C-alpha cells in the first residue's frame, strides 16, 4: 500500500490506509519519541553493548522514500551484541530531519542501522547527525553520488563503508522499546539511540535534503514506558 510523508496519506493518516497499518499502530508502543535525560532511568545494572563492525561492501537502493544501504558480504562481518544477545546488521537508511529528538533538540539527519537476531527480533540503532566542514566516513565512499542521484532503479551503486566510523565518539545511549517508524509500524523493536551526534559535511546534508526531502515521522506519545540512559 502506498504511503507518504505529506498529503492525504501522511503519517497522521497511515493507520487509515489499511487494516495492517491500523493494527500495527494500535497494538504496539510507537516510535519515534522525545528522549530527555531528565526523565530517563539510569541503568541500575549496565546492559552490555558491544559492536563488531568491519569495512563492508554495500549495495544502494531507493525505497520507502529514502536511501538504503544493504550489506553484500558475509552477514557475520557486522554484528551488535546487546544484553548478551547477538544481532546482525540488515540495513542502513536515512531520515531527514531526525525522527527522535534529544533533550528537545532536532537534528538535520538521522541514520538508522537496522539489526535482526536469529529469532527475528529487531534492534535499531539511531544516530543523529550534525554538519561539519570536514569529510566524514560516508563521503570517502562515494555517498555524494548516492545523495545526488538517490532514485536508483534496479541494482544500485556498490560502496564500501566502515560502519564503525559512522558511530559517535562518545557511546552513551538511550534505550527503549518502540516500533518501526515506517508502515507497517510494527513492534516491539528495541531502540538504541546515541545521545551524542556524528558528523556529515554540509554539502552532503544539503544534497540529501534536496534530493530525498522530508522523511521523518512525527514524535509519538510516550505512554506508559520507561526510557533508559546508559552510564
From TrEMBL:
Reversible hydration of carbon dioxide. Belongs to the alpha-carbonic anhydrase family. GO terms for molecular function: carbonate dehydratase activity; zinc ion binding. Pfam families: Carb_anhydrase. One of its GO terms (biological process) is one-carbon metabolic process. SMART domains: Carb_anhydrase. It catalyses: hydrogencarbonate + H(+) = CO2 + H2O. This is Carbonic anhydrase. Its cofactor is Zn(2+). The keyword Iron-sulfur does not apply. Residues 1-231 form the Alpha-carbonic anhydrase domain. It comes from Carnobacterium iners. Its EC number is 4.2.1.1. PANTHER family: CARBONIC ANHYDRASE (PTHR18952), CARBONIC ANHYDRASE XA-RELATED (PTHR18952:SF208). Keywords: Lyase, Metal-binding, Zinc. It is an enzyme of class 4 (lyase). The keyword ATP-binding does not apply.
Amino acid at each position: 500500500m502506498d504511503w507518504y510523508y505529506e498529503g492525504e496519506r501522511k503519517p497522521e493518516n497511515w493507520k487509515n490506509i489499511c487494516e495492517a497499518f491500523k493494527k500495527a499502530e494500535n497494538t504496539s508502543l510507537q516510535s519515534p519519541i522525545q528522549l530527555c535525560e531528565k526523565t530517563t532511568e539510569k541503568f541500575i545494572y549496565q546492559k552490555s553493548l558491544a559492536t563488531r563492525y568491519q569495512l563492508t561492501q554495500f549495495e544502494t537502493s531507493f525505497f520507502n522514500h529514502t536511501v538504503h544501504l544493504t550489506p553484500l558480504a558475509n552477514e557475520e562481518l557486522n554484528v551488535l551484541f546487546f544484553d548478551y544477545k547477538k544481532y546482525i546488521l540488515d540495513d542502513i537508511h536515512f531520515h531527514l530531519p531526525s525522527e527522535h529528538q534529544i533533550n528537545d533538540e532536532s537534528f538535520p539527519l538521522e541514520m538508522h542501522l537496522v539489526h535482526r537476531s536469529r529469532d527475528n527480533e529487531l534492534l535499531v540503532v539511531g544516530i543523529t547527525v550534525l554538519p561539519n566542514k570536514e569529510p566524514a566516513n560516508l563521503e570517502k565512499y562515494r555517498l555524494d553520488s548516492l545523495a545526488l542521484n538517490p532514485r536508483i532503479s534496479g541494482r544500485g551503486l556498490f560502496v564500501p563503508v566502515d560502519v564503525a566510523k559512522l558511530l559517535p565518539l562518545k557511546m552513551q545511549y538511550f534505550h527503549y522499546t518502540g516500533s518501526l517508524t515506517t508502515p507497517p509500524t510494527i513492534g516491539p523493536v528495541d531502540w538504541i539511540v546515541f545521545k551524542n551526534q556524528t558528523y556529515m559535511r554540509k554539502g552532503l546534508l544539503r544534497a540529501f535534503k534536496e534530493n530525498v526531502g522530508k522523511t521523518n515521522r512525527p514524535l509519538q506519545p510516550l505512554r506508559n514506558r520507561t526510557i533508559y540512559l546508559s552510564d
